[in-house]
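Hi F.,

I've been meaning to write this up properly since the lab meeting, where we talked about keeping a consistent format for the predictions we share between groups. The idea is simple: the sequence comes first, exactly as it goes in, then the structure tokens exactly as they come out, then a line or two of notes. No screenshots and no reformatting. I'm using this chain as the first example so we have something concrete to point to.
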Amino acid sequence: MMDALSVVSQLRDLASEPQNREVIVQDQGCLPGLVLFLDHRDPEVLLATLQTLRYLAELPPNIPTMKNELGMMVSLENLMARDGLSVDITALAQEVYDILCAPAKPVSHIPERERRKKSQFFINSSNNKAKSVTLHIQGLDSTDQRGLCEDALLKVKGVISFTFQMASKRCTVRIRSDLSTESLASAIAATKVMSAQQVVKNEAGEEIFIPLNPSGVKVQQNSALPDYLPEEEESPEREVDRAISRTTAKEDSSGNWLNAAASFLTKTFYW
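Output, unedited:
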């Protein structure tokens, strides 16, 4: 049986994979449903919804569609002004709102090989048996530190994707289930300017920080990360198409689930 939290959690997990973000935004039921979830009473549903929107906003072409979605900006404004919510929710609502309001960025001048290297890392990552870890990162104070943190996490074998909540100095990381959280802490500590603690909830539902010991932890480097894609082989666009079927081995079931989720949203909210 589907419920709001399970649906939005699955959408968040799908949105954490870059190749799924365009499909989710273009789906006729998912984006309107996410907007309606922004008015949900359950804080867990609110946070998962905002995390999903934050992932989707990572793809620049999605931003105009998201911004123009009926009720999106008003719901985000209401969340930012709503009393009694955690700082994580209000800060993430503000971050998503700012991204959607920001002027379109000029085309990046990152060298082609560097762009391909980073995208290839995400495209080839498998989401089988993945888990999400939330880190509080001391020292995550600017875009420079964020860049250092991104580079550190990209080098860790087993990291699938990540998104930052700069206002609360947090990073939500999708990793393989067999990768230890201490490995992430060790990679971040290697920057010499940041350190990480894990954010978890206790039995009372309160968030607490768990110290992580990065010393002595051997971090497996992402040695499979290529410097570039072979020019004589397929184009990056065709590589993406091929990689989607490879990384989502259960493509049909994922598509069926997306349809089921959209149907759930339609039956729940449209009467």
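Notes:
Residues 251-269 form the longest helix (19 residues).
The radius of gyration is 19 Å.

If this format works for you, I'll send the rest the same way.

G.
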